[in-house]
Write a structure and sequence with these properties.
By secondary structure, the chain is of the alpha/beta class. The chain is built from 15 helices and 15 strands. α2 packs antiparallel against α9 and α3 crosses α9. Pyridoxal-5'-phosphate binds next to α4.
């Protein structure tokens, strides 16, 4: 397996121009990855290069159009390798995951009857809840898998709410709010037993773990390239042959076959050039004879590295008096390197604002996992502060200067300003 040494990480960092961006003389620390990664130069070049060299619509009898057709085909093949899909035919593109999920829900409901059931979870991002909840207008019953106080889904409840009336379980692979990795093997066993489809929202898992749609035995899987160093493009995987059986919203002029059947209008070709470049960049960090081997080996190395960084932050932040960490710990099995905290006496937006003042970018609020934040009783406190990145920087040290007065002296000197300890010291 490939590994990421400190030196290799340093080389990788050079590919990201935004890492040189500063706030008042201090490099910005991007902990805001849960809502999208920074974009490396090869991806930026691919997007710009498309406009420079082969900007055209598809299916024309001239060179730039043919090059565009070829690019889109190659991007599908590359994304198929990223997800472990059997071929490009299973890979559809769209504006983003949310839009594709709505389109899929509208297609699926056409073959369902009032009284049929869809199961969603209390942990999921609204993008994997809202599209299914709207089906209540069509008489579909929507049930929810309960969230336990430890930030994991209740397996007994999952077994209870999936019944012979269930048509589909829509479940996240990993939570963007709490880092929880869900038990998809259990989800598959339970859905198989009753003949229901399994839809996996892998938007938050795909940047952190190798994806394998065949091993997951997923019927549908969605992800979003801006979470793994690419532009804003949504990806839908459908089990071979499945999309061809669905009645999608489409124009009579549109290609009827999968994967095009669910793709309306002109795709963002330049962004798709960037998606291909993003996956190739990941593959370039791995090893092995095939693109798929390289992707898996790179993602495994990334997973190990990220886990170590997140575990360090988790332990460091947990040790600060007055800070509470939400979601599962790092002692058990799989866990995304996403850590959410609350700080006693300081609402989360204020924590994020104070860190933002010194160039440390963290998220606050419900982060679109609104139901989970409500269920955990955190909505009134402004939700959580959610991060991914080098925890050492974020935990910081206790400074001599008080917070909330702009950048600390260390920042003015061009070094990394103190992080959460600094905020805690000045409460
Ligand atoms: C877990 C999860 N699902 C779905 C989405 C929505 O993705 P998109 O912005 O591509 O619609 C996000 C975005 O943050 C997410 O984190």
């Amino acid at each position: 397996m490939a590994t990421f040494s400190d030196q290799e990480c340093e080389w990788c960092r050079r590919d990201f121009p935004s890492l040189g961006h500063e706030l008042e003389g201090v490099p910005i620390a991007y902990f805001d990855g849960p809502a999208g990664t920074q974009v490396p130069q090869p991806v930026i070049d691919a997007v710009a290069g498309y406009y420079r060299t082969c900007n055209a619509n598809t299916h024309g009898q001239f060179s730039t159009s043919r090059e565009t057709d070829q690019l889109l085909h190659e991007t599908r093949e590359t994304v198929a390798a990223f997800l472990g899909a059997p071929s490009w035919r299973e890979i559809s593109f769209g504006a983003n995951m949310t839009t594709l999920c709505f389109a899929l829900a509208r297609a699926l409901v056409r073959s369902w009857q009032p009284g049929d059931e869809v199961v969603i979870t209390m942990l999921d991002h609204e993008a994997n809840r809202g599209p299914w909840l709207t089906l209540r207008e069509r008489g579909i019953v929507v049930r929810e898998v309960a969230l336990l106080p430890n930030g994991t889904l209740d397996p007994e409840d999952m077994a209870k709410v999936i019944t012979p009336r269930t048509k589909l379980l829509a479940i996240g692979a990993a939570s963007n709010a709490l880092g929880t990795v869900n038990d998809l093997a259990l989800a598959r066993r339970l859905t198989r037993k009753v003949g229901a489809w399994l839809l996996v929202d892998a938007v938050h898992a795909a940047p952190h773990f190798p994806m394998d749609v065949v091993a997951l035995d997923a019927d549908f899987l969605l992800c979003s390239a801006y979470k793994f160093y690419g532009p804003h493009v949504g990806v839908l995987y459908c089990r071979p042959g499945l999309l061809d059986t669905l009645t999608t919203d489409k124009l009579c002029t549109q290609d009827d076959a999968a994967p095009f059947r669910i793709e309306t209008g002109t795709q963002n070709h330049a962004a798709l050039a960037g998606v291909k470049a993003a996956v190739e960049l990941i593959a370039g960090c791995g090893e092995g004879p095939t693109l798929r081997d390289q992707i898996v080996s790179a993602m495994e190395a990334l997973m190990v590295r990220e886990r170590e960084l997140a575990r360090r932050y988790f332990e460091g932040v947990r040790a600060i008096r007055g800070v509470r960490v939400w979601g599962p710990g790092f002692d058990g099995g799989h866990r995304a390197p996403t850590v959410s905290i609350t700080v006693d006496g300081i609402p989360s937006p204020e924590v994020a604002r104070r860190l933002g003042e010194v160039g440390i970018q963290v998220w606050d609020g419900h982060f679109y996992a609104q139901r989970a934040i409500e269920v955990l009783g955190l909505a009134d406190r402004g939700g959580v502060s959610t991060t991914e990145g080098d925890g050492h920087v974020l935990v910081g040290t206790v400074p001599t200067a008080p917070p909330l007065q702009g950048c600390a002296p260390a920042a003015a000197a061009g070094s990394r300003p103190p992080g959460l300890r600094w905020i805690m010291a000045g409460r």
